[in-house]
Amino acid sequence: MTGRAVVVGAGIGGLAAALALHRIGWQALVLERAAELGEIGAGMSQAPNALRALAELGVAEQARVAGVPTDASGNLRAWDGRYLQRARPGDPRPLLAFHRADLHRVLLEALPAGWVRTDAGVTEVRQDATSATVSCDGTQVSADLVVAADGLHSTVRRQMWPDAPLPRFLGRTAWLGIAEVPGLPGSVTLGPGGYVLIHPITRGRAYWAYVTTADAPGVRYEREKAEVAGRIGDWHDPIPALVEATPNDAVIHIDIHQVRALPTYVRGRMALLGDAAHAMSPDRGQGAGQSIEDAVVLAAALAGEPTIEDALGRYDAERRPRTQATAHGAAKDGRRLTSEAAHRAMVTMLRLVPAALWRKGIAADGNATWRWQPPHLPAPGRGLLRS
Ligand SMILES: Cc1cc2nc3c(=O)[nH]c(=O)nc-3n(C[C@H](O)[C@H](O)[C@H](O)COP(=O)(O)OP(=O)(O)OC[C@H]3O[C@@H](n4cnc5c(N)ncnc54)[C@H](O)[C@@H]3O)c2cc1C
Question: Which atom of ligand 1 is nearest to the CA of 154?
Fold first, then answer.
């Protein structure tokens, strides 16, 4: 089956979806509300499952060049600098760390010219038995399929899933930044009530994030950098220096929300994908990775099933259990990692894990989430031959 799709949103999920559709010979138009393309935000990591999905999209090499292998899962430290686990030369480094804009660019550059339209906010969607239509800037665009990759506060989800509750604030907040500090190894540092993640990224930069608890969403500070420096300024080197080296206006503050588990990701000719379907706590570094997986599974289903209805049924059946289990696990990890009460016990427990066992757990096949294998998409061009 081939066809024409509208993808709502040009974040990592939307671009991955468009690229997956391109790989199977579909046409797609990506409508993005923002005036300019690019990812705001700081950095991120991608795990072996998402890297395999990127390979299936044909951009493995581009992603490898845009990313930097990070030791973040090997170097586990306490806030005073003690190593609870320490990476050694030759240890597995299954995570690649990116500036978000770099991963976004990898996907964008692989798309045919003219597939993405900016300044194109979708305001309404509707469908009948033969097509789905989106309204955007007073014009209507019809297609065989609408892929809603419009993020946490998805317009399409609000309209087509009117009974779905609003995203849930998880009681956590994060500060993020990028600083020009070359040569830092990746690490995760556990403190009472929060943790700091550091990844090296390209061009001699480092990405950092501090995640902690918050009573309510929306609390903002006049000087966000000073606020975060006040909270982790006495943690081990290089954390204070890293925050200090981050330009004031480059410190980002985000509250953490989760989309509550939906009973279905599909309605007729519409499919939710990425954060629109399953925005999750960031503590497993999986949100964007799951959206890339979604894209590959959706395209494989469209290429392999006789009708859109069958394909979306398969997509929903394959993606909902996995993404919702990942979201559940991430929320649990986030609670544990930011619990002041559990901090001391967790530090003791992590220090007691034998190094060999820890290394096994951080190998590319070390956990069920990372072990995921993508379905194979038809080789480029082959999809075009089917009609
Ligand atoms: C602190 C933090 C750290 C994270 N770290 C990681 C990590 O290390 N690894 C990882 O894989 N994930 C990570 N994530 C999760 C990741 O950021 C998200 O899961 C991912 O960005 C979701 O991509 P998306 O394309 O689904 O949605 P988004 O990135 O939200 O993109 C949605 C797009 O749709 C557009 N849009 C919205 N409404 C409309 C409309 N009506 N019409 C047209 N366009 C519209 C928006 O402008 C936007 O461009 C992290 C998240 C947080 C908060």
Answer: 38
Q: How far is CA 375 from CA 15, 297, 379, in A?
A: 18, 6, 12
* 238-247 per-position pLDDT tens digit: 999 999 999 9
Among 6, 33, 253, name the best residue to mutate to test ligand 1's pocket (greatest count of ligand atoms within 8 A of Cβ): 33
Residues with CB under 6 A from ligand 1: 8-14, 31-34, 44-46, 121-122, 149-152, 155, 174, 176, 209, 254, 256, 274-275, 282, 285-289, 291
> Are 338 and 213 in contact, with CB atoms under 8 Å apart?
yes
Q: What is the pLDDT of residues 25-39, one digit of tens each?
A: 999 999 999 999 877
pLDDT digit string (tens) for 40-90? 779 999 999 999 999 999 999 999 999 999 999 999 999 999 999 999 988
Q: Which domain holds residue 163?
A: 4-385
- CA-nearest of 146, 49, 37, 154 to 96 is 49
- Looking at the structure of the chain, the number of domains it has is 1
Question: For residue 160, what is the domain's CATH number?
Answer: 3.50.50.60
Q: Torsion over CA of 56, 61, 62 and 63, rounded to 10 degrees?
A: 70
Mutate-to-test residue for ligand 1 from 32, 155, 272, highest number of ligand atoms within 8 A of CB: 32
Amino acid at 84: L
Q: Can you give the pLDDT at residue 9?
A: 98
Reported as a pLDDT band with limits 50, 70 and 90, residue 383 is: very low
Tokens encoding 321: 């259990």
Q: What is the residue-wise DSSP string for 76-130? A: EEETTS-EEE---TT----EEEEEHHHHHHHHHHTSPTT-EESS--EEEEEE-SS
Q: Please check the confidence at residue 172 and state whether its pLDDT lies above 50.
A: yes
